[in-house]
Design brief:
17% strand; 2 strands; mainly beta; two-stranded antiparallel sheet; 0% helix; 70 residues
Length: 70
Amino acid sequence: MLKIEAAGLPCFDLRKAVKADEGVRVLALSNSFGVAVGDEQATVQKGTISVVARLEARRGVFESAYHGPV
């Protein structure tokens, strides 16, 4: 973890996020294999949202501090 003294940095405001429902196409950018720690390219995956449910609705998973829609 890194802590820096800065203000006004660019970020996502999740309060302004567009609501996505079932059937919406999505793109996910990630570091699938945990190797992109420098200037390596990220992995891009495409998919479609099949269902939106609350995290508590999932079965057989570990506890999470997040309890919103997934």
